[in-house]
From TrEMBL:
Tetrapyrrole methylase domain ranges (all copies): 4-220
Catalytic reaction list: precorrin-5 + S-adenosyl-L-methionine + H2O = precorrin-6A + acetate + S-adenosyl-L-homocysteine + 2 H(+)
Record has Methyltransferase as a keyword: yes
UniProt GO molecular function: precorrin-6A synthase (deacetylating) activity
Full protein name: Precorrin-6A synthase [deacetylating]
Enzyme Commission numbers on file: 2.1.1.152
SUPFAM superfamilies per UniProt: Tetrapyrrole methylase
Entry keywords, A to Z: Cobalamin biosynthesis, Methyltransferase, S-adenosyl-L-methionine, Transferase
Length: 257
């Protein structure tokens, strides 16, 4: 039996690795590290640094190249599903190649495996082709790092909020029934498509990391600053992870009974 441990490592800050995560990572026989090309080498390097601070020489660390997602397929869910299947095939191949039917495999997950991450879905596909037990170790999410960086609560008193993606914001606009939205996975800065009146934005690039960038203010004034800062950071580092929270201005600073 293979034990697959999906270990949340926060936003890349080694101090975000919990004691539980460190303990289970140290018990692994095999750690899988994905590569995403030269422009994402920093991400793999952070995983290696975390491994280097915790693992002993007895743990095998194996890198693999992630397949490229087919963006030509018009059906978004279909092309993501095909991509997940291809990744699962690689996971299964590496597990079979490096373990003799049993052992502990660790996969380090940015943030937390439960929030807009596909490792659990990929693990389910792997479990369909080999005996597998899955354990999830929660990690600090980029949403937590964002609100901590700006020292704000994620929601107003007694009010709901929505966590969504840039794609959903572009396709459907501001979600109904909420005044606060957190937006993840938005490489196209979809806030540009919103009417800015009465909207406040809090944005973080590399939230929780040593090179964290934080900007906030009325959307109309802050959007150009975010676009410039994001472009400069991506040019400098070759990649960027960012997240933002928006609240309709009527809710900012309002005292609720």
């Amino acid at each position: 039996m293979i034990d697959l441990m999906l270990i949340g490592i926060g936003t890349g800050n080694p101090e975000h690795v919990t004691a539980e995560a460190a303990r289970l990572l140290a018990s692994a026989d095999l750690v899988l590290i994905p590569e995403k090309g030269e422009d994402k080498s920093d991400l793999a390097q952070v995983r290696r640094q975390i491994c280097g601070s915790i693992l002993t020489d007895s743990t095998r660390v194996v890198s693999f190249d992630l397949p490229v997602r087919d963006e030509a397929t018009p059906d978004y869910l279909a092309r993501v599903g095909d991509w997940h299947y291809a990744i699962a095939q690689i996971w299964a191949r590496e597990i079979r190649s490096n373990l003799d039917g049993s052992g502990k495999v660790a996969f380090l997950v940015w943030g937390d495996p439960s929030l807009y991450d596909s490792t659990l879905r990929i693990a389910e596909r792997v479990a369909s082709v080999m005996p597998l037990r899955v354990k999830v170790v929660p990690g600090i999410t980029s949403l937590q790092a964002l609100t901590a960086a700006h020292a704000i609560p994620v929601n107003d008193l007694g009010k709901p909020f929505t966590v969504t993606t840039g794609r959903q914001l572009r396709d459907h606009g501001w979600p109904d029934g909420v005044d606060t939205i957190a937006v993840m996975l938005d490489g196209q800065c979809s806030f540009q498509g919103l009417a800015p009146d009465g909207v406040h934005i809090w944005w973080s690039g590399y939230a929780g990391m040593h090179n964290e960038i934080n900007l906030s203010g009325p959307l109309e004034d802050t959007a150009p600053r975010i676009l410039a800062a994001r472009a400069a950071a991506r040019a400098q580092h070759g990649w960027i992870m960012d997240i933002y929270l928006m609240r309709r201005q009527a809710q900012v600073g309002e005292i609720n009974d």
